[in-house]
Amino acid sequence: MAEEEKDFIFSDICVEENLVYRKPVTLTDTELHYCPGCGHGVAHKILMEVVDEMGIQNEVIGVAPVGCSVFAYHYMNVDMQEAAHGRACAVATGIKRVQPDKFVFTYQGDGDLAAIGTAETIHAANRGENFLIVFINNGVYGMTSGQMAPTTLPGMVTTTSPFGRDVKVQGHPLKIADLVASLPGAAYVTRQSVHKPVNVRKAKKTFQKAFEYQKRGLGTCLVEIVSNCPSNWKMTPLESNKFVEDKMIPFYPLGDLKVPEGK
Amino acid sequence: MTQEAIFSGFGGQGVLTMGMLLGYAGIIEDKEVTWMPSYGPEMRGGTANCITIISDTSISSPIISTFDTLMALNQPSVDKFEEKVKKGGNIIYDSTNIINVPTRKDINIYAVPGSETAVRLKNSKVLNMIMLGSFLKVNPIVKLESIWKALEQVLPERYHHLIPLNQEAFNTGMELIAK
Amino acid sequence: MSKKLMKGNEALAEAMIRAGCDAYFGYPITPQSEVIEYLSREATNRTGMVVLQAESEVAAINMIYGSAASGRRVMTTSSSPGISLMQEGLSYIAAAELPCLVANINRGGPGLGTIQPSQGDYFQATKGGGHGDYHLIVLAPSSVQEMVDYTKLGFELAEKYRCPTMLLADGAIGQMMEKVELFEQMPRKTEFPDWATTGKPKNGDRRIITSLFIQPEKMEQINLGLQRKYREIEKNEVRFQTINTEDAEYIFTGFGLGARICTKAMESGRAKGYKIGVVRPQTLYPFPVEIYNQLSKKVKGILDVEMNAGQMVEDVRLAVRGNTRVEFYGRMGGIIATPDEILEYFEKMFL
Asked: In the complex, which subunits touch C with 3 or more CB pairs below 8 angstroms?
């Protein structure tokens, strides 16, 4: 590129009034390790955008899980703790109880939250622990390469349900958000997705609401993101988004399951 | 001076409290004290005991093999611990409850009709105070006023109106030895 | 300072409050439930300390992780089966170098076992307990007074070395009452270490608390760092007590309550003319290797007494390096050996 051309781009095009998108400062420059088409990247981004927009980067403590998002702390430019598998809600309880003025969130997948961490999740919500649980549900164990998750749909093929999940043998998918919504301690429970721009925008708004409710001390907020896993579903990203639309969402319908009273 | 005692009986007879009261009285006089209870489900209905050691010098072990005094409120306590009393030591037992009495000749044996006396005082719950009175008469290891102070510490305030009754029981127990 | 008659578990809880502890997370289990009961009554009103009954020991230790990583002074307590459940969390805490204090009021095992006192968790406490190469600093109180003193000391050591620290006491010490002298109330911390996750500093890097280092080269460096710390602890923090070892021909040794029973047996033995001394490790990790090695060169034998099948005796034998004879006497399943039993065994084996 000629020097003149460069000058033109930086001095005339890259100016504030032309700005249409900026990466949130709360995301680091580290390259994401997620597979192409995976919903994690989008979920990370909108969560951090909300932190940015609310101006709370210095007041947030996040908890990363064990699963695909185990390295969430490489990307999220806030203070973070890495929890043992399934224990994020217990760790977050420990953080929030001694730092009640800070914003605390956990970021967990379906294996971490809905299998090994069910007790911690349910009891944290039942105590009304005042933090945000971000729950990425893609119906499969990603990091360990495609085993059945508690949220795997009936009939869905995984490496440990090679003939399709048989609910008589392998049990039923666990609708953890519905369970949490039934608890008095839960203030706000909603199910969203990030497979289309309109859904991404909606999902982002729910994160903002959740942090606002946390600031008001309303209790546990859980945002479930019905997501995809092209690699382990053995699909292209587009096919996986269609699977989200056609199969996952009918089983895990989107929308608010519980909103704070008077809201 | 050191007194190594075991208080033993059924759960609910107040044997743990006897040792504890003595312990509190010991602390009031700045003596060394250890109080080691048997604990767990056996406290509810089975046999319960506590080893209480009061001493002017430091106490090495709260667990001991033999005792200066056995306070026995039921038959199993005599059966189990009679042999563990040191030569020249004491057994004080509730003669209302215990049929097969201790027989050793090398120790001092005091038969105290504790339960019968408690009935006479119209409160079966003061059995332990009667027997503790007898214990202190045999082993004057702490002052009487320390026991009274300990009572105030151990009893929750809402029961302080029962202190005179407990004192009466205690004094009666002391007199039962004098006879 | 006034002296009080207190139960071991309650003295521990009182010392926790007075040491300015910020948070306690625990789950009831006999024989140590008095700790959480006492704290629930006393702590929050007095110092604002957080006291929370968790849904399990698994959750409790991970709450400890979260609050320790927030730079707070934190503690949990449990008994053997509950401590087993905490091992995963302790391994993560050791790896992430988080200071915290854990008391194990040891009961008889294995399995659900018995609620009666035992020292059967020595191996678990001193050799790591969870997965990976790590240690806890392990203090062994032998009296109600030491339950108090070691709670304060335990916090100090944990924070000095960023190393989880354990009080290993048996159920009897938790349940018995003795005279104690309490230290004055200490203030709770208002400033927190730089590494603590208290929100990213405005002009500094974010803090990350993790035990995940996927590159083996990095993980080895982390391990080497931990090992350097353990060598430092072994150099600086060995604590033990000796009684009548100057002229001793034989040594009785044990830890916690076992050591006190040994002392009584030693006194009875001395009355019969046997020249016996007592060695009591106060730190089980780091283990007082040197004192055993020194004494092994001049005594005729060592009798190790524990409330287990023989655990610390392995460390004693390693320290003695074959210089003298080491025998073991133990009772298990919640039975406590009496002083007479010990002396009798000594006479049988050594005389």
From this structure: A, B
Max CA-CA distance within chain A? 70
Domain count, chain B: 1
Task: Provide the pairing of β-strand C23-26 with C74-78.
Answer: parallel
C178 touches chain B (CB under 8 A): yes
Instruction: Inspect the interface and report whether the beta carbons of A79 and C202 lie closer than 8 Å.
Output: no
Q: Which helix (H) or strand (E) holds B115?
A: helix B114-120
pLDDT band with cut points at 50, 70 and 90 for residue A261: confident
A81/C69 Cβ within 8 A: yes
Query: Under an 8 A CB cutoff, do B40 and C115 touch?
Result: yes
Q: Are there at least 3 beta-carbon pairs closer than 8 Å between C and A?
A: yes
pLDDT mean over A160-187:
97
Phi-psi label, residue C207: left if phi above 0, alpha if psi -120 to 50, beta otherwise: beta
d(CA A164, CA A156): 5
Instruction: Give the domain extent around B160.
Output: 2-178
Give partners of B (≥3 CB pairs < 8 A).
Answer: C
Cβ–Cβ below 8 Å for C178 and B20: no
Which CATH number, 3.40.50.970, 3.30.565.10, 3.10.180.10, 3.40.50.300, labels domain C3-187+226-235? 3.40.50.970
Q: Give me the DSSP letters along B34-100.
A: EEEE--SGGGSSSEEEEEEEEESS--S-S--SSEEEEEESSHHHHHHHGGGEEEEEEEEEETTT-SS
- Domain spans of chain A, in order of start: 33-253
Phi/psi class of residue A27: alpha, beta or left (left: φ > 0; alpha: ψ in -120 to 50)? beta
Query: Using CA atoms, how far apart are residues B137 and C221, in angstroms rounded to an integer?
Result: 70
Contact C66 A77 (CB under 8 A): no
Domain C240-350 in CATH 1.10.10.60? The answer is: no
End-to-end CA distance of chain C: 47
Q: What superfamily in CATH does domain A33-253 come from? A: Thiamin diphosphate (ThDP)-binding fold, Pyr/PP domains (3.40.50.970)
Residue A142 has a pLDDT of 93
Chain B residues touching residue C260 (CB < 8 angstroms): 60-63
Please give, rounded to a whole number of angstroms, the shortest distance from the CA of A51 to a CA of chain C.
12
The per-residue pLDDT for B43 is: 47
The complex's ipTM? 0.94
User: In chain B, what percentage of residues exceed pLDDT 70?
Assistant: 96
- The CATH number for B161's domain is 3.40.920.10
Give the global pTM. 0.94
Q: Do A98 and C56 touch (CB under 8 A)?
A: no
